[in-house]
Specification:
21% helix; alpha/beta; single chain; 7 helices; Metallo-beta-lactamase, Chain A; globular; 264 residues; binds zinc ion; 8-stranded mixed β-sheet
Length: 264
């Protein structure tokens, strides 16, 4: 079964001509997962051929606008823009606070946010949860990250492959162990060294995390303009990470097969 990941947005909250805000589309069989839904994600799905009208699960890492900005627009599109009219269920998964976010979006934009005309489940997971959707064989685990007081990283497991995603994080203890054994690790790298904040990663912090996680392929995303993205592979190597690295660009597709990850 094909397992593919499309980077919809490799950027941040800073407007960019090339990098949309955070959004990652994961598909395998009947599973169509969106990991974060920042601004640009919805139209990015149309641009890059992702099945926006078949999204089965939306996983939110935290509630900063560059990660949730297109959530209401996506629900609006699913409610009114899919043809034939959608009947498949949708599960929105998030850390503590996701119910409050959805309630407030409904207050701001309308009842369709919680009642889009097809079954919608909002699932609030603790920051160290293990959950699975038996109907499609999707396993989801969370781990706290050093970014906000409710932010999480995700680990996704299917029969066809495993992918992990940091969301936004600083150098969080235990995260490398949580990611261990994933074929593809999608990790933020916001700023150049030396680190000025503890709530984002720089190449040195990412090198430590990736070395512990040891994925088959590391894809680097969430890149602020201050970071020279072309230099990131060398900076990671200088900081001690010897694994395969690819700096994300919007539209990048990675296929997983036989325990290996390949850029298409
Ligand atoms: Zn962010
Ligand atoms: Zn953030």
């Amino acid at each position: 079964m094909a397992f593919e990941v499309t980077i919809l947005g490799s950027g941040t909250l800073v407007p960019s001509s090339t990098r949309r805000s955070a959004g990652h589309y994961v598909t395998s069989g009947s599973i169509h997962v969106l990991m974060d839904c920042g601004s640009g994600t919805l139209h990015g799905m149309a641009r890059w051929g992702a099945a926006w009208d078949r999204i089965s699960h939306i996983l939110l890492t935290h509630f900063h606008t560059d990660h949730v900005g297109d959530l209401a627009p996506l629900l609006f599109a699913l409610s009114h823009g899919s043809s034939p009219r959608r009947t498949d269920p949708l599960t929105v998964v998030g850390p503590p606070g996701v119910h409050r976010l959805m309630d407030r979006l409904a207050q701001a934009f309308g009842a369709y946010v919680l009642d889009p005309g097809f079954p919608l489940e909002v699932l609030e997971l603790a920051r160290d949860s293990v959950w699975s959707d038996e109907s499609c064989g999707l396993g989801v685990s969370t781990h706290p990250t050093l970014h906000t007081d409710s932010s999480v990283a995700y680990r996704l497991e299917t029969d066809a492959g495993t992918v992990s995603y940091t969301g936004d994080t600083g150098p969080q203890a235990g995260l490398g162990r949580f990611f261990r054994g994933t074929e593809l690790m999608i990790a933020e790298c916001s700023y150049p060294d030396p680190p000025k904040v503890e709530t984002h990663l720089t190449p040195s912090g990412l090198a430590t995390l990736a070395a512990e996680a040891s994925p088959d392929l590391l894809v680097v995303t969430h890149i602020y303009p201050d970071l020279d993205s072309d230099a990131v592979p060398d900076l990671l190597a200088q900081a001690g990470y010897g694994g395969r690295v690819r700096v994300a660009e919007d539209g990048l597709v990675v296929s997983l097969a036989g325990g290996e990850a390949h850029v298409r």
